[in-house]
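Pilot study result, target chain (86 residues):
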Amino acid sequence: MFEKVTVSSWVAISDGCPIHCEVGGSGVAHFVCGELPDGFEFQIDSEALREFVRQGADALRDMDSRYECEETERLSPPEPESAPST
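Predicted structure:
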């Protein structure tokens, strides 16, 4: 059953940030990003986690595709300049 979010937060999680997860039975997982007591914690039920993982996988595919395009552009030789016409 859907319940409203009780707290709204914005968090930036960067490469190298420790992320820990503990499963609390068959219906809930508890995540900690960073180290306690200053880390960010959230709890998510199994169906919400499935959707979170699905959305995350879609985001990673998009990010990887964009990275590949950026690298192709970066490694491509510049177009030769055309000579001015007189």
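One observation from the pilot: Helices lie at 46-75. A full batch analysis is planned for the follow-on phase.
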